[in-house]
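FIELD: query
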Amino acid sequence: MSHQRFRGLGVAWVTAAVNLCQSARGQNGGLTGVNAKRLLRADPAAMKDWRTTLARNRDYLLPAAAGCVCAALLSMVSRGEELPVLGRSPLLPVTLAAALLAVPLGIFLRTRSIGAAAPARVTVRRIFALAAMGAALALLPIAIDLALPFPRDLNLPLPGALLFYPAIAVVAETVFHLGPLALLALMAPRGTPAVRLMLPVILVEPLFQILFMPLDAVQSWLVVGNVGAVSVTQLWLFQRYGFSAMIGLRLAFYLVWHIAWGTVRLPILFA
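FIELD: result
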């Protein structure tokens, strides 16, 4: 497949997502299928529309693409190890499905004024702020682990962890946040404040942790509190700064909890 046709398929996917969401909102305009065809001929006007569309949705496109690349690389170097949550299920198809859903879901949510209207500018200060927030939120599960150790195989070890967690972060955000928010937005009357839709979504990931992780009662309640706090912070970031800030906090949390602590906990707790 030529470079131009590959690019055209990508544009057609974003075009379909944008136009579907605009149709649901009763709007016209945007990047059209005709422009996607013109793009294959390197038409300057179509190229401008293409760049504008991608720029508007880079908040979703870049993390989704990065997650897919990480999943693909892990699938090439993996030796068939069991993965956290997924077990022996292949990571790449799950990540691709989540990434393909994340972009249209995010565009739809923006039409309902859920999430930041435009992605926030990335600065060094904001990156350090996200890293500090993620590290602070990781302190509680580390304390729980020291007092009431979680299972030994809770985390994927290095070096695979560096590829697995960016990919699974895309899956987690789609399943636990974007999907439930979009479902509630479809069911709720137009104009429902975003905060009202976000309140029940806070509980989705904590409930998943309780149902699918073998924890005792005390651990379960502590995990619910911690994961709930992470979810509240993420949804606040999503509404104020956009999707990249929301997934950025998850990645910072994963870096400390699953990767850094996941590496040093084994000799400390299971020597």
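FIELD: remark
The two ends are 52 Å apart (CA to CA).
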